[in-house]
Please model this.
Amino acid sequence: MKIFGIIPVRMGSSRFPGKPLKKILGTTMLEHVFGKSQKFKNWSSLSVTTCDKEIYNFCKLKNYPVIITSKKHQRCLDRVYEASIKSKKKIKDNDIVVCVQGDEPMLHPRMIETVINPFLKNKKIEATVLAMHIIHFSQFINPNIVKIIHDIDGKVLFTSRSPVPYCKKFSKNINARRIYGIFAFKKKFLKKFNKLKPSPLEKVESCDTNRICDNGGGIYIAKQAYQNSFSVDTPQDLKKVEKYMLLFKKKAKR
Model:
């Protein structure tokens, strides 16, 4: 079983156009994501996939393997599947394809290990998502942060931008979790996913994980404890990430 990493990025984000090439502490977000992903030692290959010539040229300049995919894709997992088909490295049905979303500049290589570990423990598992504990109310009510509802075995039931599970008073003890943008799939699972039409809940919540849930499920959480690691959905998020990265940098120098 081999492990292939694919980083989907595009310039046309509705909430933050051009964000992959926006700079954080003088380095583009894509460089942060690729560089940190590269530190995971068990890749058979790690590639960027995009529909944009600007990003393609940037990757070529940086010597990042890059795969051009269709402009028609609305969701990142469809783009990742197309890239897995076009990859120069042959990806077999039981190989693992890891989607590292290009707006996670604070990721740590251990997170990639976390989404892969369930496959090693249970051969029946075919898909996982990194599920980070929510301990702050501001994240719980943020519609840009997708929350996860799962059963007692960790199987994802649905995901929502609403604050779920419902509670009269929020606390970290309700064990709310959010999608942190790292997913892992057996190639054959991605193939099945790609054949499905966008589902009702996927369209309403604008989250392709719900296409899986609407069609019988099969994706499981990989639990991740809370840490100060934030996705970039808006320009305000980028400023927040820059603030924390600068703080970490100062602490490291002490």
The mean pLDDT is 96. DSSP finds nine helices and eleven strands in the chain. The chain has one domain: 3-253.
